[in-house]
User: Fold Acetylornithine aminotransferase from Pseudooceanicola atlanticus.
Amino acid sequence: MIPSVLPTYSRAPLHFVKGEGAWLIEEDGRRFLDLGSGIAVAALGHAHPTIVQALTDQAQKLWHVSNLYEIPQQQALADLLVEESFADTVFFTNSGTESMELGVKMARKYWYEKGDPDRIEIITFSGAFHGRSSAAIAAVGTEKMVKGFGPLLPGFKQVPWGDHEALKAAVTDRTAAILVEPVQGEGGINVLPDQCLKGLRDMCDETGALLMLDEIQCGMGRTGRLFAHEWAGISPDIVLSAKGIGGGFPLGAVLATEDAASGMKAGTHGSTYGGNPLGCAVGLAVVKALTEKGFLEEVRRKSALFRQKLEGLVAENPDVFEEVRGFGFMLGLKCKPVNADVVKAAYEELLITVPAADNVIRLLPALTLTEEEIAEAITRLDATAKRVAGDG
Ligand SMILES: Cc1ncc(COP(=O)(O)O)c(C=O)c1O
Assistant:
């Protein structure tokens, strides 16, 4: 008999009932150190007092009104994001997938309004992940994602990650946008080097194609800057955001320049929930905390320390770990045994990690992780490695 919850996930038998910062408490009282944050969602950790306060204050006043009316919390969050980023304008969604959908629509409408309606192609990269909608799976195009779900939304062209020649050949006068994650998450923590992001910017400038970045996982402070592309010193046209921006509340955003957004006039897009008072009150508290003076400096300092200790862990456990990937608090350990077995062994050590492609386990802790918690994470990862290697 089919379970009452549609069985699309294979779940670990863990029942968390409470969260405190970087810790998750199981029903049976065990305290797990959470290096997953709900897959890069709980940017400020679980139950951070500032966002709990923002949520409860707003919940007592007004949860929801339609986007038919002015929403001051939405306005304030948009103003703050515009002030802190490349963007001139923001649309709020409820998830990364919805941000992706709008990104695709925005890029195509841009060219339609410019009188070039055939310019509809969007270039994506192997290893990418942009969500689970029909457009998002078509964008990725792997058999695992698309098999049985056709017909797919046309107009996506996948290029092998790091293959400059293939990319050059793929960009034509039908290219509406190039879509890339500055750091691939699901793909196994693959960092797009700064010079490649600069190269993509140059290519877009030469051809007119829009540079659209999926920062749903790597944005919102995760790499030690509000957005990961800031490291390369470039300015994109469209950025997709979600996950960390709501700190656990389902919130997403599409940020764009005035030019890139120029096709999106009244009536061209909408959402019932996207940008509602409750979500935006929380999002505002999150983004204010991330942009507070000194916060991202601390993320950079602590994450560099974590990475350095992870290098030591890999050197200590060469039969289990091959290398450390990523930067900031968007880190991965490439495993030698099957990564799912390492994730399972970590549960035994009361540690949460997240599997990714390419046999990697991801470490995406709360950005508030302390030095003591970093030391504890290393202790538990080391015990995990010993357990997997059979000498624990
Ligand atoms: C880079 C990236 N894009 C898009 C998505 C889809 O976001 P959501 O699951 O919120 O729809 C994810 C989620 O993992 C992601 O990591």
Notes: The chain has twelve helices and 17 strands. Residues 386 and 392 are 4 Å apart (CA to CA). The chain has two domains: 16-34+295-389, 50-291.
